[in-house]
Amino acid sequence: MSSTLEHTLARIRGRDRHIGDRVRTHLDTLTKPPGSLGRLEALAIELAEIRGEAFPDITPPGVLVFAADHGVAAEGVSAFPQEVTAQMVANFVNQGAAINVFASQIGARLEVVDVGVASELSGEGIVHAKVRPGTGNIVEADAMTRDEGMQAIDVGIRASQRMIVAGCRCLVVGEMGIANTTASSAVLAALTGQEVRGLIGRGTGIAEARLAHKAAVIERALAARQAKADDALDVLCKLGGLEIAAMSGAYLGAAAQRMPVIVDGFIATVAAMIACRLCPSVRDYLIFGHRSQEPGHGVALDTLDASPLLDLDLRLGEGSGAALAYPLLVSATRMLADMATFASAGIAGGEVR
Ligand SMILES: Cc1cc2ncn([C@H]3O[C@H](COP(=O)(O)O)[C@@H](O)[C@H]3O)c2cc1C
Ligand SMILES: O=C(O)c1cccnc1
Q1: Catalytic positions (predicted)?
Q2: Cα dihedral 230, 232, 233, 238 sign
Q3: Rounded to an integer, what distance in angstroms lies between the CA atom of residue 67 and that of residue 134?
Q4: ipTM rounded to 2 decimals
């Protein structure tokens, strides 16, 4: 284990439940029937416990997008060719992708990190942290060595540390990597032991007929790699991806600094499963932004006992669904800080429940 990872894991503590009790009491003094703001109230409590502050400030947000390629793209498991990963990185830099639009809308700092794109990327606006140019094709070889997996996790930890130094108080973590729904389904199958058929989906939009091929590729990879279900790093390194490793690292780095993280879709949630296996307390810092259309997402969410805020039929990635959920977190903190109390507004209280 790298010293960065060891140091990070040692710093992660659970949420501050005492603050939660104070916030719960305060919420019931605000000018609304107790509990009437439902999950927004629960969110306010969670955010206060995460930050360790009765009136948490989660602005400004930061968005990290990790990009990497997958050797398994050669098996024809995506509707798009591998070059699209690098082309989309250029699009991120040129502000043209969905995540650029949503990040700008919420006033987020955005960083694009090349943790393993197959081609050489040049140009400004990209953080160059390539661990290797794409993973091995998991049907034929391990995705990466354990050492490379650790390096990719460290890339993620350092990226979230940069966001904190830049003043960000809430993190959105996204990815770009053609064929990464295949890698994520393989990781999920290895971790849960569930049937591959129930864990795959159409990703970028492969035809219904190609789904059986995608399942067969994953089954071959699972049989060939023999990853150990109780060893998250083994599963990650044999079947996963460099951006998935970096996302796990970003969650760990954020949790170590008490920064809330909004988890995006399927790939992001599989990365969250890895992070939580490495350190169960990380779960305390994760807020789930949306439910992806990718069928495996429901399974991954259930393993983490997570119920996402939004269900908008998204199946994009990039951190898009997490960025869309961010304004709800802001509403929760503003409600807590800015609403009048029954006493200050001179409103009669109701029955004590
Ligand atoms: C233009 C374009 C933009 C994207 N942005 C995110 N993804 C998403 O699609 C990919 C996963 O799907 P699969 O496993 O089927 O390849 C990932 O790159 C993911 O982030 C995109 C995909 C495309 C084509
Ligand atoms: O849910 C996701 O993250 C997702 C789904 C399909 C394609 N890319 C990403």
Answers
A1: 318 (proton acceptor)
A2: positive
A3: 10
A4: 0.99
Using one digit for the tens of pLDDT, what is the confidence trace for 182-197?
999 999 999 999 999 9
* DSSP 8-state symbol, 118: S
**Confidence check: pLDDT of 279 > 90:** yes
Q: Is 243 in the pocket of ligand 2 (CB under 6 A)?
A: no
3-55+336-345: CATH number: 1.10.1610.10
Ligand 1 atom closest to the Cα of residue 203 is 15
| Residue 308 near ligand 1, beta carbon < 6 Å | no
| Selection from 199, 175, 195, 147 nearest residue 271 by Cα | 175
Residue nearest to atom 9 of ligand 1 (CA): 204
Pick the CATH number of 61-327 from 3.40.50.10210, 3.40.1180.10, 3.30.70.141, 1.10.260.40: 3.40.50.10210
As a whole number, mean pLDDT of residues 262-284 equals 98
Catalytic residue among 49, 75, 243, 318: 318
Domain limits, the chain: 3-55+336-345, 61-327
